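quick one, 185 residues, struct below
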Amino acid sequence: MIEAMRQVTLFLTCILLSAFGLMACEEKQVVSSKPYTGPQQETYDVQVVYSDSGHKVIRMVTPVQLDLLTGDRIFPKEIRLYFYDKAGTEHTWLRADSGRYIRMQNLYRMIGHVKIENRIKQETLETDELFWSPDRKRIYTDRPVTSRTPTGVTNGTGLVATQDFKQYGLGKVRNSQMQVNDLPE
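---
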């Protein structure tokens, strides 16, 4: 009889352990992961020089560049472009709060407090968004623009310019405040 009770106790112990084991098992769900869309590479203190026939044409400077899997680049901090003439003299610069390079279009988008200055002509241009196409060697926007020259200020909407800002045209001029120099008596 003791042997039978031992077998029953062992049998009940096995059943209890099996029940606890089954209760401890959880059903695991497979979670589908989203594809990674963040930067593939981060580069700091970036300085890139673009040249044409061995002559420095443009120098780009930015503290951070994020390279995406698509080939696009994000410049989350200030970005500056410096334009040079054939003699290597810097004549124009462009700065923006941030920017993005769109590889499929070979197009740079400058965003936030965008300012261009042609030092030779003493002209500046300000807007909040600007595009630079290296292929077409053009700078353009359809946003409000303020142009300052030694003779006055012009406000308009839209701009098309050569990438060196030596020639440009404003669209939809809203007002122009030209300064008149003192005339001789």
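The first strand starts at residue 39 and ends at 52.
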